[in-house]
Amino acid sequence: METAWILRGSLPKVKTPPKFSPEKEVLKMFAHRKVFIGIISILVLAMVGGFANAASYLVYDGGGGQDVIQLAMNQLGTTYGITYDLRTPLNPVTLNDLQSQNYTAMVIGFNDYANMSGVKASDLASGITGNILLTGHDPDVHSTQIPVSGANPNTQASAQKFMIQALSYAAAGPGTGLVAFGDFTYPPFTYLPPGYGITATGGWTSETVTSFTNAGTASGVFTGLLPADMSNWRNSYHTEFVSWGAGFVPFELGTDQLGNAAAVTIGYSASAPAPVPEPCTFMLLGAGLFGLVGFRKKLKKQSSS
Length: 305
Hints:
Number of strands: 10
Helix content: 25-40%
Mean pLDDT: 82
Shape: globular
CATH architecture: 3-Layer(aba) Sandwich
Strand order of the largest sheet: 2-1-3-5-4-10-9-7
């Protein structure tokens, strides 16, 4: 009796190992994979949401003879998903608009004797703090029209590519950038701040672009384009720049009606500080990292058992 009692009381209980089930193992692996993918997705959302804001533009439409900036922006919105808010002489651009951080850049359409009273030079001087692109081209007009007889057959596609890349350049810098398309008035670009130091001639048309400068090529504005693509639009550009202030450099050169070399597009590149994540980004990053740590601990615990 005593021996039996000792045997019954001292022997440890032996757990019966669970039966191996291929189906259950597959389900476990799938569950682990779903958790892992979910955590990685959180981290990716944090990175994308915090460091790359979707481009939203402030567009000024002053009317005029060839008033198509809204149509051109709508086409870009359909193709590239960009958004914009509209300003007009009746709903003018304000300094608060430019400093609100709601817009990556401001866009001013081709000025064919438009009403520019809704844009104040003083507001541009204080509110534009990013990259600036000024061009004699009117890509908003040509991107919305089928090329006329005798024009470069690639005019419409080239104009649209140049336009979206010009907008992207302005949006890439810190603060709020600016893109201003050609000005047919004389003298042109009088609505710009005097501090920009812009002197230009306008009120006419030219066809030939001869080259992109090193700065222009590096800017990305002409990626996938050749000088020939920017030429022979049947009114390729309407303005040439004679002089400009500190920080501006020529991006594109052409030949005017008199055969003289001309600066067709100029740009100003602002120095971009490192992007600062928003509070929600920190929360997403924290959640993702916490999930990865917990997931790793769970795997270690399961492997040890």
